[in-house]
Amino acid sequence: MAAKSSSKDKVLNMVYSLGAAVVILGALFKVNHLSLGPISGSFVLGIGLIVEAFIFVVFAFDTPKGEYEWEKAYPELLDGKPIERKVKVPEEEKLIKEAEVSLSTKLDQMLSQAKLDANLFDRLRGGIENFGAAVSEINKTVEANSATQKYGDQLTKAATHMESLNALYQLQLEEGKKYTEINQKFVEDLAKAGENSAQFQKQLEELTSNLNNLNKVYGGMLNAMKA
């Protein structure tokens, strides 16, 4: 069996660990050229090496620790030959078979009490198949509803477009009516202007005739005065 850890082992373990720490610190000071006041890296490294040498001296006088005596637990380790397994006696085989039969019987009883037979599994399989069919029908219904909704949306958009077209057509009709009225008024104004022009022409002719007559009168008067 393994030897128990004594106070001596604990002290030596502490000495080894602390000594190794001093050596590592000395190497750190030396490599990085560190110093702590008058304490230089070379000084710390020298102290670390001295401590390391002291640790090796102490370790030389340390007694080896005990090990587990595995040969007591495994006798085959003594001569290196495997030990043959014991042959089962008929009584042991009988007990094992009875235990197996008893376990199988108990398992059958548990399944019977739980009513876990072939019919139950058939019903379970049928239920799963029916559930799958129901899910498929639901998916079809959902797809149909989605298509109906999409068709309804398209109809709504088409109706909106038709309303826009009707409004545009009504606006065009109103604009055409206004344009027709403007043209009709323009034609009427042209006709009135034509009538006024004819009347003006007639008055101008009358004025010209009067002027001619007046010139004749003035001419006669001038001739009479000259005579």
From TrEMBL:
Domain (Gliding motility protein GldL-like N-terminal): give its ranges.
15-79
Entry's transmembrane regions: 12-31, 43-61
> Coiled-coil regions in this chain?
190-217
What is the source species? Apibacter adventoris
Against NCBIfam families, the record matches this protein to: GldL_gliding
Please state what the protein is called.
Gliding motility protein GldL
Q: Name one Pfam family in it.
A: GldL_N
- So which domain of life are we looking at? Bacteria
UniProt KW keywords: Coiled coil, Membrane, Transmembrane, Transmembrane helix
